[in-house]
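Summary for the funding panel

The consortium committed to producing paired sequence-structure records for every protein in the target list. Below we show the first two records in order, beginning with the earlier of the two.
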Amino acid sequence: MADPKGFLNHGREVARTRPVEERVKDWNEVYVPGSLLPIISKQASRCMDCGIPFCHNGCPLGNLIPEWNDYAYREDWGAASERLHATNNFPEFTGRLCPAPCESACVLGINQPAVTIKNVEVSIIDKAWETGDVAPQAPERLSGKTVAVIGSGPAGLAAAQQLTRAGHTVAVYERADRIGGLLRYGIPEFKMEKRHINRRIEQMRAEGTRFRTGIEIGRDLKATDLRKRYDAVVIAAGATVSRDLPVPGRELNGIHFAMEYLPLSNKVQEGDFVTPPITAEGKHVVVIGGGDTGADCVGTAHRQGAASVTQLEIMPQPGEERNPGQPWPTFPMLYKVTSAHEEGGERIYSVSTTHFEGDEDGNVQWLHLVEVEFVDGKLTQKPGTERKIPAQLVTLAMGFTGTDQENGLVAQFGLELDQRGNIARDADFATNVPGVYVAGDAGRGQSLIVWAIAEGRSAARGVDSFLTGASELPAPIRPTDRALMV
């Protein structure tokens, strides 16, 4: 145990963010560089090393949180990094992007602010990179078996790294021009600088993983041809079909899916454009959807110089404390102020878009909305609450409905789908097609980055067993496992 009285002697402190007026002028991460290390030992000491650490249940990766908290408290960074990597291939991703269900399940969180698990995690991995404790782990011998991984998001990368280290020859196919999936083009630079992805890719290359960009399976390369080339295939193509908003005026110019808007901004940071083809500069921006993707659109619009930013959410505003229907250790729906919301803009809850209004040139100018409420369990419009707000750029950030089927991947493989439209799989993450496996959002549906990495690791075990007859790779979750929620 780190410090038996740590949780009594120290309050919760989190990473400091840079001043708003400074950070909205650049695309660097919002946190003050180096601000965590001076406080992280004390924060790690707040971990009580519980007899039953519920943080393990909150995290699908099964992270050994009390163990690396203890090492961080003692500033044994090498041991902390080893324990962290024992369950998580990419802690620098999760430490920056995960909403931390582990903290919601922290036993200390029953009656005090939870341990800053995410901050401890990111401190350990950043220190590990700084000190050279993150090194390639090439396999001692090759199996002679080949695996294709379709998709280079967190699930695909995790599966690829696990299988490469098991001795298989792995090639990752990515339809975009760079590796990373939504990590690369869906997550803004101010949330995670892409240098973190780049150095992991270099580590994986050094281990033997091969990468093929600009190749979309189903269009550029037939799925059946891919299956003939490799002994096994892992589909980690994500759930990339955006949920649409079929209301009058949807066809107007200036209304875009979030995943049309955000990637172009990220391509500016990559040097592909001087200015993005879709920009918020000087415009009244409306973001429809109150989740993390919506917040990413808000922060991006601020940095592009929007005249105003309004975020709409159809559900009621959550409370700041757990409600009785979401008791510890479940993951609660709480009112969250992200760094993007700190930077300005307005958030409007319990409203629904009725239609859009444009100018004579077909450009969106106004969004018409109405207040809604639940009546007998049904969402109902409130008469007399209709109004309109200026909207010259609208981004739809209402989630995703499933994996892409228009490219032919599903049909060409002959894959079966489940009742929710996801690719069906068995207990080993295998599809109905022998040798073809699925991991991440393509099989689970839209989910969190920790679930994607856990799925990639678990699917890798299924593939390894299929290729060799047995496997020593870990499988932290089953396909049927779900987050701890009410």
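The next record, for a separate protein in the list, is shown here:
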Amino acid sequence: MSGDVSEGGLRCLVTGATGYIGGRLVPELLAAGHRVRCMARSPGALRDHEWAGDVEVVRGDVTDPESVAGAMRDIDVAYYLVHALGTGKGFEETDRRAARTFGERAHAAGVRRIVYLGGLTPAGVPEEELSPHLRSRAEVGRVLLDSGVPTTVLRAAVIIGSGSASFEMLRYLTERLPVMVTPSWVRTRIQPIAVRDVLRTLVGSARMPDDVSRAFDIGGPEILTYREMMVRYAAVAGLPRRLIVPVPVLTPRLSSHWVGLVTPVPNSIARPLTESLRHEVVCHEHDIARHVPDPPGGPIGFEESVRLALRRVREARVTTRWSSASVPGAPSDPLPTDPDWAGGSLYTDRRELTVDAPPEALWRVIEGIGGDNGWYSLPLAWAVRGWLDRLVGGVGLRRGRRDATRLRVGDSLDFWRVEEIERGHLLRLRAEMRLPGLAWLEMYVDTDEDGGVRYRQRALFHPHGLLGHAYWWSVSPFHAVVFGGMARNIARTAARSEPAPAARLSSPGG
């Protein structure tokens, strides 16, 4: 990435490209004529994005100064779109250290601008009274502004877009509960913003003058209470009017459990979202328009942003979701084909059988697994496992799928994440449920010497300590029913399935 900036736009570094905003920002930067480098802890997670061949991808972590320095080389604009939320009690210190490293390395590399998307903080509220989430976001903004690099800090409240955590929370609460006993924060005034306006502002911020270094409030044209947002969502979605009864007894902690119970958003994400709604979050200036002019007609209104988001959901064109980023603490490296655990244990459950179906039909069933299609054995057992996972703070089963028919590396799939795909041959899933160890599920399409189609399935578990070994042996008696039934039902479903249209069997770029 070198050469005259004027010839090919700016040279942009995007961190957090595997996340919700980062994954949408990259194609917008490319469309604006910029050149893009993505930094990711697991570069393979970006492999199946449509724009993967148009960007440079480097391995790195914002807490590792050496990898950040390498990623900053020859960069004009560096986008900071990561945070340590959900990594544990020390996430504020991790955020602080990562932001300081990012700013220092950007300054040393001669980066012309840093752009950071943070949270809108309430005016007049002492910082110590803010939620840890908002407090950390505000501190990261200050650290970057103090880096010596001209910095744009964009502060947004609730982002409305298909797949965003805020939108999913609003959508599920409204659609699933015609009568709601709600926390008092449903009366809080909020200034939501459409994800399209967030992306437009992020792209436009790249070309701010060098003498501009400050924070900007960004929001949509309307200020609404959360209750009004739910009522308007129901109207746009064609739902009967919802009865909403606020009560003062639901604390932020109880609220997050309530949200986690009703929606796919786990407590680890729901809690900072609900804590941030304790205070009014509205814009107090619109100075950003001096540098990134509003589009004709102004920013997108709330109801139009909901219509756009629902259209993408219904047309299965959700490009990124809140769950695109991996769960903190989950293993980031793929399972080797022949794992070497250096003397450690690796428990394996293997299933293999002949399938009376063409390999394409079997692959369609494998790639369509999870979400609404389920897991092909004992739905109640999978549901109970999902509920147990949510009770201990895990993601549970309700993350579902980004797309109903196609998967890509990095996609979340219920309480799994897609770690590897070899189309037509292998799907490898990594467990992100709470377990005393690491777990994977592999599904293969093979042919035997006579040309027959074989289905192979492998569940692997690497235990952590004595508890991990005890866990495996306590659940292994059920494997014949769960994993054995899963293999048989996948084979039967493939044998009964109709041939797919040619478009369904196209290459990943088709």
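Regarding this second record: The chain has 15 helices and 19 strands. The CA atoms of residues 66 and 343 lie 31 Å apart.
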